[in-house]
Each structure stands twice: as C-alpha cells, then as structure tokens.
C-alpha cells in the first residue's frame, strides 16, 4: 500500500436537495455541486448525516448516488455514504456505489443496537471482504452511541488495507490526536478527517488530513482558506479564517436535526436551492432563521 493519502483536504458532506414533494431535485443538486467544485474543494461526500440518508429508502439512496457520480463526472473524487444498521444493506449499497463509479464509500457504524467490539469488527470485516472500493469509517458516537476507538480502527486497518480513512465527528482533540498517532503513525496512507468545523486547524496541526464538515456547503471559502493557508505555512491567515469559522458551530444548536439549518444557510449565502427537508425534520422557524442570519453575519458570510 502506498503511503500517499488519497482523500484529503476539504470534502463537504453535500446536502441532498429535494423538491417540495420530497423527490430528488436534480437541478438544485447540480447547482450546489457546481458551486462547491468551483470553490476548489478536494472531494464531495454524498448521503452523510446532512444528506439525510437516514430518512431515505434504499432506492432513493441509490438514485442520489447514481446522480451524484454522473453529475460530478470525475471533476473531484466522490464518496458515498452507505452506512446502515443492517450489514446486508451496507454491502448492497456499497456494491451499488462501485457499480455507478464512486471513488469510495463512507460507512457509519450500526446504530440502535450497541454491538460488542467483536460483532462490530465482524460487521466491518464482512463489508471489507465484500467490497473492494476504498472504505472510510465514520465515527459519530453522539448519534450512534458507540465510539470507534483508535485501537479498534488500527485492528481493522492492519487487516484490510482498503480501509483508508476515518471521519472523526468527535468534539475532543485528544481522540483525533490518538487516531493520528496510533493509526496514521503505522499506516501513513490512512486519512484522518475531522467532522466538526472548528477542529480543522488543530487536526491539521496534529498531522491529520482535513475535514468533512457541514459548513463546506455554504462557507467553503473558510475551510478551503484554512487548509490552503496551512499548506503554505501562513498561520496568520489560517488563524483569521479559523476565528471566522468559530461562529459556525453555534448554528447547529438552533434546531435538531440541523439539516434544515444547513439548507437555509446555503440559501442565505446566495445559492438558489429548495430548503425542503424530509420528515421527521421540519422547516426552520422564522425566528430561528433570524438567529441564523445573525451568526452568518458574524462569520462575514452575508
């Protein structure tokens, strides 16, 4: 296995745009994809948490995956979220992602049932044996209820070289640091990407590789700015962008789930898209839209 990191930099978890009837809005999705690619992102991740995969049927998820790969057309790498509480579903969705031409899949661990470490390992092992695409792990213990520890991840990567990275949606720099030191330290090709906006700079400083965070949908200039400045050893500029980005996490407290907040932010910052969200998520209230606009103003985005 090469020591080169294949997936790095700024990879927005793209919001799925729907019509008011809850169908895939291909025109709106196309606009958002073009905007993100023009913003110099390093890849796109479809059907993550903010992509509302958990509210979709299998067929709807396959439709989005097919459209995304076709529309991006090789301009940047495409990662598809194929996580599920069912191992069989993950494998079916991952094989479909390979069939349509995705560059890799991102697999969140099963939710609802807590699994023993051995059962969790066998879940990922069965996927790895069935799918020869690059596989990213997705650690979001706040939603799954179960952490993917660095020791667990190292065991997986030791055995399956095409497990190539992890999205660390954890709010502790120590967890990210240990993932970098233990896993990336032994497997330099392994990509460690944070999942929260305000951890990008410290993730890079710790030796990590970038971010997959929601702000990439509406403020890619901030995360792209941090990443580019860091690569150029321009820490003054990186810190300036980081201080603007620090306002963004306040948005995510406005509602739950916050997929509606992200779509409103996309629209407020200039993209003409539908803000419809799949139930049980609901539209953002006018009062919260005002609060959102204030946060975006403080970040210098509107």
Structure, described:
- The chain is an alpha/beta fold and 302 residues long.
- It has 12 helices and 9 strands.
- A 9-stranded parallel beta sheet has the order 1-9-8-7-6-5-4-3-2.
- Helix 11 (259-268) packs across helix 12.
- The longest helix has 15 residues, at 58-72.
- The chain is globular, with a radius of gyration of 18 Å.
- 47% of the residues are buried.
Structural class: alpha/beta
The largest sheet has its strands arranged as 1-9-8-7-6-5-4-3-2
- Report the end-to-end length measured between terminal Cα atoms: 45 Å
Radius of gyration in whole Å, from Cα?
Answer: 18 Å
User: Tell me about the biggest sheet?
Assistant: 9 strands, parallel
Quaternary = single chain
Given as residue ranges, the uncertain stretches (5+ residues, pLDDT < 50) are: none
Total number of helices:
12
| Shape category | globular
What's the SSE pattern? EEHEHEHEHEHHEHEHEHHHH
Helix fraction, binned, reads 40-55%
Q: Classify the beta-strand content into a percent band.
A: 5-15%
Number of separate strands = 9
Overall mean pLDDT score?
97
Q: What features would you highlight for this structure?
A:
9 strands, 12 helices, about 300 residues, about 10% strand, globular, alpha/beta
Please give a quick description of this structure.
With 302 residues, this protein is of the alpha/beta class. 44% of the residues lie in helices and 11% in strands.
Topology:
Blueprint: E1 9-10, E2 13-14, H1 26-38, E3 44-46, H2 58-72, E4 78-81, H3 87-100, E5 104-108, H4 117-130, E6 135-139, H5 141-144, H6 150-159, E7 163-168, H7 173-184, E8 191-194, H8 200-205, E9 210-211, H9 220-231, H10 235-245, H11 259-268, H12 286-298
Parallel strand pairs: 1-9, 2-3, 3-4, 4-5, 5-6, 6-7, 7-8, 8-9
